[in-house]
Amino acid sequence: xxxxxxxxxxxxxxxxxxxxxxxxxxxxxxxxxxxxxxxxxxxxxxxxxxxxxxxxxxxxxxxxxxxxxxxxxxxxxxxxxxxxxxxxxxxxxxxxxxxxxxxxxxxxxxxxxxxxxxxxxxxxxxxxxxxxxxxxxxxxxxxxxxxxxxxxxxxxxxxxxxxxxxxxxxxxxxxxxxxxxxxxxxxxxxxxxxxxxxxxxxxxxxxxxxxxxxxxxxxxxxxxxxxxxxxxxxxxxxxxxxxxxxxxxxxxxxxxxxxxxxxxxxxxxxxxxxxxxxxxxxxxxxxxxxxxxxxxxxxxxxxxxxxxxxxxxxxxxxxxxxxxxxxxxxxxxxxxxxxxxxxxxxxxxxxxxxxxxxxxxxxxxxxxxxxxxxxxxxxxxxxxxxxxxxxxxxxxxxxxxxxxxxxxxxxxxxxxxxxxxxxxxxxxxxxxxxxxxxxxxxxxxxxxxxxxxxxxxxxxxxxxxxxxxxxxxxxxxxxxxxxxxxxxxxxxxxxxxxxxxxxxxxxxxxxxxxxxxxxxxxxxxxxxxxxxxxxxxxxxxxxxxxxxxxxxxxxxxxxxxxxxxxxxxxxxxxxxxxxxxx
Length: 582
Prior knowledge:
By secondary structure, this protein is mainly alpha-helical. It has 25 helices and eight strands. It has helices at residues 24-44, 54-58, 62-70, 82-93, 103-123, 135-151, 154-158, 169-176, 183-202, 208-223, 253-282, 288-304, 314-323, 329-344, 346-350, 354-367, 371-380, 382-398, 400-420, 465-477, 498-513, 525-533, 536-540, 549-558, 561-575, and strands at residues 78-79, 311-312, 423-428, 437-438, 451-457, 485-489, 517-521, 545-546. It has a six-stranded mixed β-sheet. A two-stranded antiparallel sheet has the order 1-2.
């Protein structure tokens, strides 16, 4: 589904642009499924940071409504995130004077500050950083978080206390403790997984996750699952979110700023990767700057309703996409469903079996591993497939933020290496044809008598200047003895710095000692301006700057050899040291 083109300015209800009434049914179904899947994590995640369980419910209600109002994405769902809550726990741990009773207020204040960071980053246009997340990274990361979701359900669906983290270690730990498998839990999970596949294949009007929740609750009530050792959600707090400005104590201002900064970095990395991953999968564009507004609003709402920092939730977004949610109405329905649950349905959901929820998450994760895309990347570019694998395994092994940094770092290293060794080619003419052709591609092309034409296919900057210098030196060494000019086709040189200008001067001086003149053709305006400031154009001579290669050819044919040699000697004398200090 293609999203509507984003409106300029700050988005308000942008995800509802072009809304169609036929989307109501899938949106409501998706919202109920999001609430069903998000409830257990909403209750469980706060314990990681030593917060009461109701804060997780608050983080799953108010932020969803705020993002629905200000977020640009139709499908993205915000809420508690494992990586973000882990960093929150680390930030709270740096505050030794913080009492347990003060932790909720400090967490809420951190959410407000994180929201401020998002808005500030939006004003500075820092969303451009997300453009460094290439398609292989997105596909690999998407598969990685899917595998992470699957491994995270081992304990839920089997009852085995799996403590290891990562991708392989949990399965090794599981194999060692296989004797403790709770077979009724595993049987229930398998049955619910089969039910999910059956409802998907039969295209029933009731979404699979909702059917699983209803069926498993009924079975739990009839057969007393809890009494048979099957884990259930348990008692749910009955309190509802209350609007209030947090009044933190026990934390200094610098501790709050540093903690919020770390949370912002992790939540942005995790959130924007999730947004771009689902955007790439759904075929719609993602504007990172506009997403910052939505994330900022969500965190402001979390702070004002006594919750904690939130970001995009991959599991909830996966459920939304899997069910077919078409707009942020799904998030609104999910928030209202959780609110109704807190007020009226606590006894029913208290007996909801955990293995059934694990089956829902596994089914959603399996559907999100894009094997055809990985196969296509392997076929097109093996090195990019390596980046996809790095993006797949790094977040699982190193955490979301470190994994993203490693994947982007590998991409940068590869990109920098390619930029350090720009390609070049010699050009010539084909009899009976206009223009110039690469000699290595066109066997019928012949060099221009008296002139060697070198096409440099890259910028001339400090990190590639030595390589280009070496290549031009090699070309000069191989030129025929009758060569009078070496003309560089600079059409592909869009940038140059002082190091590049000094390198060109060295090439010019070396050619002059050989009795060969250096020329430049098709020089971009910015490149020409820098070369002029460097004094290189004065040393080169205005007669050796050409609009195109045809002009260079006509100038060569019109230049008498004797006069050319005299002019070259005069310009050499005037230009000595012209750019020596560059």
